[in-house]
Fold this sequence. Notes:
This protein has helices spanning 14-24, 66-79, 90-95, 116-129, 138-143, 145-156, 184-187, 196-199, 209-218, 221-226, 230-237, and strands spanning 2-8, 27-30, 58-63, 84-85, 98-100, 111-113, 133-137, 170-172, 188-192. The protein is α/β, with parallel strands linked by helices. The longest helix is centred in the first third of the chain and has 14 residues, at 66-79.
Amino acid sequence: MKNIAVLGCFRSGTNYSKSLLESNFDCQVKNNLFGWKHGFIPIISKDSVLEKNESFEAAYFVTKNPFSFLVSLHRYYMNYGFNILAEKDFYKFVTSRIIIFDSSNKESVQLRFSSPIELWNSMNWNYKSAKGVVHVRYEALLNNPEVECISLAKKLGVSRLDRQFIAPQMKVKRMNDKSIYTDINSMETSEPFSSKLYSQHSYMDLFGRNLKAFINKNVDHELLSSLNYSELYADLRKVRSFRNVFSFNIK
């Protein structure tokens, strides 16, 4: 059984991907083999006393498109309040400074970004630049989990288990490396999950003209292209906001 390292920004789908891979392939997906799965992959110089972690055999990172990422991150912050210091109003949240840290570690250092978009840029650029770290999009996993997982597993070098492919039907837990998960049911919560928020892009109701302009000015378009988001991003920018017409609960 292979140890696989996972990385990704908060609310990017790391736990969802873990539940898919461990339930269908011969592997264990570990969160913190680089130090912290939501942090940067460190630069280790040749004369550093730190050593490269060789306790895993492959690694991947998960992304969401910038718009759904912002909504998911804000919802997480409003509902739980862990690991983040930021504005609570959604418009201010998107356009203002954000600080992230590991709230489970009293001595955790903090990472500061000028906005959540800069967080998306910086973290994903770091992951993308790492040699051998495989990329997978959350949207692709959600739309066609079996096909995307087979492709991901092939790149990671893990073999499929001899069983019918299964995927979580409820929201998955916020998982850690200390807990033991025996099957996919142990990875799920009792909360229902609807993929329509993503497949129908209803989260775009929150983005008016000014927010879209801010995001477009600050997002790294080269990174969008390298992560294969350019087409989806362009389509989402055209979606009309109905925020003033319909009530949209972001909590």
